[in-house]
Amino acid sequence: MEDAKSQAFQDLVNVVARLRSPEGCPWDIKQTHESLKPFLLEEAYEVLEALDTHNPQHLREELGDLLLQILLHAHIESEKQAFTINDVITDLTHKLIRRHPHVFSAASDEAPKLDSEQVVTQWEAIKQAERSTESDSILAGIPASLPSLLRAHQIQKRAARVGFDWETPEQVFEKLDEELEELQAAAPCLPDAGPSVQEPETNAAIEHELGDVLFTIVNVARFLRINPEEALRKANNRFTARFRYMERQGAQENKTLGEMTALEWDTLWEAAKIQETTEGPQRTVTLETRDQDHE
C-alpha cells in the first residue's frame, strides 16, 4: 500500500516534468515563478472556499489544484539545479521532527507529557532559536505579501511576545474608541465634506487614521482569539448572500433594488437574516497562540 502511495506521487511529479519538457505543453513550458504567483494565490483561496462548503469532493479537487502549483514551483527550481520536490519534503519532515521533540526525541517516552499550551510555548521557543541566527528583529520572517489583516495580526503577536501589548481587552476597546475619534476629526464633515476630501493632504490624513482604526480592530480580534481575515471573509459572504436574496425577492415582484424604498430594503434585509438563521450559522474559526506562518 505504501509503495502504491509513493508511486502515485511520483507519477504526478513525472506528469509535471513531462508538461515542462521541450515536448510538453507550450503554456506550462513558458511559466515562471512570477507568472504563476496569481494562480498560487487563487488556488489557495479556492481551498478556503471549498473548506467553507464542507464538501469533501470539492476540497479534494481544490487541494489537488494547490498541490499542482507547489509542484510547478519546485520543478522550476529543479530545472535550475537548485532543489527538487524531494528536498522540499525532506526539509519539511526534518522541521516537523525538530519542532516536536515531545513526540520524536529519544527521551519523549520518559519526559513529562505536555499540554497544548506547553506545546505551543515549546514550538515558539524552538522557532525563535532558529530565527535568532537569521535576524535580530522579532518581526523578521513575516511576509510582506500576506493579506494586510493577517500581517497585522502576525506583527501584533510577535510584538506581544516581548511584552509590547495591552493587558486587557477593555484597553484595546478604549484604544479603538480613541482611533475612531481621531478618524472622525480627520474628516469632520464626512460624508458631505466637499472638495476638501479630494485634496492629497486630507486624503493622506484620513488614510492614516483609517489605517490605525483597522490595525486596532485586528488587535481586538486577537484579544478575542478570532481570525480577522476569516471574520471579514464570512461577513462578505453574509452580505453577498443577503443581497442576492433581496435581488431574488425583488425579481419575483418585477422590481429591482433601485426601484425599492428604504423601508422595502429593510424588510427584505431582515427576511434575509431570518433565512440565514434557519440555515444555520457559519462555523467560527478561533486562533491558537501558535503563529500561522509556521516558517
Overview of this protein structure:
The chain is mainly alpha-helical and 295 residues long. The protein has 4 domains: 2-99, MazG-like (Helix Hairpins); 101-131, no CATH class; 166-223; 228-279. The chain contains 12 helices and no strands. The longest helix is centred in the last third of the chain and has 25 residues, at 228-252. The two termini are 31 Å apart. The relative contact order is 0.06.
Domain count, please report it: 4
Question: Helices and strands, in N-to-C order?
Answer: HHHHHHHHHHHH
* Proportion of beta-strand residues: under 5%
Count of strand segments: 0
Distance between the termini: 31 Å
Radius of gyration equals 25 Å
Roughly how much helix do the residues carry, as a percent range? Answer: 55-70%
